[in-house]
Design brief:
Elements (H helix, E strand, L loop, with lengths): L10 H6 L9 E2 L5 H14 L9 E4 H7 L7 H12 L2 E7 L5 E7 L3 E5 L2 E5 L2 H7 L10 H4 L5 H11 L10 E2 H8 L10 H19 L2 E10 L2 E11 L18 H9 L3 H11 L1 H13 L6 H11 L15 H4 L1 H15 L2 H12 L6 H9 L7 H11 L5 H10 L1
GO biological process, one term: DNA replication initiation
InterPro entries: Initiator_Rep_WH1, WH-like_DNA-bd_sf, WH_DNA-bd_sf
Family: Belongs to the initiator RepB protein family.
């Protein structure tokens, strides 16, 4: 395992970097492709509160669909969660004082399903490591969705953390087999077979499907291959799939529109981070289309933070019951209120999940432009949030029935 670059370290870590290797977490490789994707989705969902909450929750149906299997197949989800609890994560690295630290933990300390919700937790020691970007790299869900092989995704995960150093460093073959999940197979003790069945196909898929390009190199003792390393370069054709977590926001069209409207730099980036570019763009489109609005910034703030139902509307014919008079507006207000209460990672998951229901035609384009305000997808959006939040519109339906 290669050193973390010295310019990324300080104090005792910098002094020890020349002599000591700083390794990232190694996760036992006996995970299926489904379990690897599940692990990444769970981590992304929990990441914002990884150090502040002892447990985390996600809708079980959302979780199932995000990793690509039937949302009603709870047995498969249970089996996958059981696999994560039984999987070992191990680290061997320098601590903050420059001392060598070895640790081991189950990947999940527990998981349970109740009332359509998956609750899970990490051990405190592992949560600390997972939250440190020098130790563990979050995998972009756009990226992992492109993989069809568990070995390829495992190789990508174990190489991506070293993208800035340009090399994984030398791994002995026993460790490499363990990372690929084939340590118990005598067949893969022969390097020729390991290379033909695992290394070459996995490298080909990583280079074809991801934002990095790998070149394997081997080292021999006598005639036998004993070590392998992977040289890593960024793949410029797919680098666009990388997450943009800050500075790049300032170069976007939506950021420019927010600033032109009067939002401060900090507020513009906060809104983009919290709500996502598509939803902020939809808010801007909605606000800029309104006539006779004195303060468009105030209107946009109400739209993003409180829901579009707070915006001025035409007088309702039934002033005693405005919800009954304009159920579409009230329905939208409730949807956006639910969205407002969810974390940024959950909002991103909701959007990705909804996009799986759309093809590549006008409906998808309209949603990408207007987000949850998409007029072409109004019925789909209503049905989606009715499933996500059962009972959300029940009283509106009752009111409609009473008027009929």
């Amino acid at each position: 395992m290669d050193d973390i670059p010295r310019d990324q370290l300080s104090g005792a870590l910098r002094r020890g970097a020349v002599k000591k290797h700083v390794a990232a977490i190694h996760v036992s490789g006996k995970l299926t492709l489904l379990q690897r994707k599940l692990s990444n989705v769970l981590l992304l969902n929990a990441y914002d509160t990884l150090m502040t909450k002892p447990s985390h929750q996600i809708d079980a149906r959302t979780l199932s669909l995000m990793i690509g299997y039937n949302s009603n197949d709870m047995d498969t989800l249970k089996q996958s969660l059981r696999g994560l609890v039984e999987t070992v994560a191990e680290w061997d690295m320098l601590d903050e004082k420059g001392r060598q630290e070895w640790g081991v933990s189950s990947l999940l300390s527990y998981a349970k399903l109740r009332g359509g919700v998956c609750e899970y937790a990490y051990s405190p020691a592992l949560a600390e490591k997972l939250h440190d970007p020098k130790v563990f790299a979050l995998i972009n869900l756009n990226m992992q969705r492109r993989f069809t092989s568990g070995h390829a995704l495992a190789l990508y995960e174990n190489c991506y953390r070293f993208v800035r150093t340009g090399s994984t460093g030398w791994w002995d073959l026993d460790l490499f087999r363990r990372l690929m999940g084939v340590a118990d197979s005598s067949y893969y003790e022969v390097f020729k077979q390991l290379n033909a069945k695992i290394i070459k196909p996995a490298v080909a898929e990583v280079n074809r499907s991801s934002n990095i390009v790998l070149t394997p190199e081997t080292r021999k003792q006598g005639r036998a291959v004993t070590h392998i390393r992977f040289l890593i370069k960024e793949n410029p054709q797919l680098a666009i799939l990388d997450m943009d977590d800050g500075e790049g926001m300032r170069h976007g069209e939506v950021y420019g529109r927010l600033r032109a409207l009067g939002a401060s730099d900090r507020l513009a980036r906060q809104w983009l981070g919290a709500h996502g570019e598509a939803q902020v763009r939809a808010g801007l489109d909605y606000v800029e289309a309104r006539q006779n609005v004195v303060s468009k910034m105030g209107y946009l703030t109400a739209a993003l933070e409180g829901g579009f139902g707070a915006a001025p509307k035409a007088p309702a014919p039934d002033s005693a019951n405005p919800q009954a008079a304009n159920p579409q507006a009230e329905r939208l207000r409730r949807i956006l209120e639910v969205i407002r209460t969810r974390t940024p990672t959950q909002r991103d998951a909701d959007r990705r999940l909804f996009l799986t229901q759309l093809g590549d035609g006008p409906a998808r384009q309209d949603f990408e432009r207007h987000g949850w305000m998409s007029p072409l997808n109004a019925a789909r959006i209503r049905d989606f949030w009715q499933e996500m939040s059962p009972g959300l519109f029940d009283d509106l339906a009752d009111q409609a029935a009473s008027r009929a």
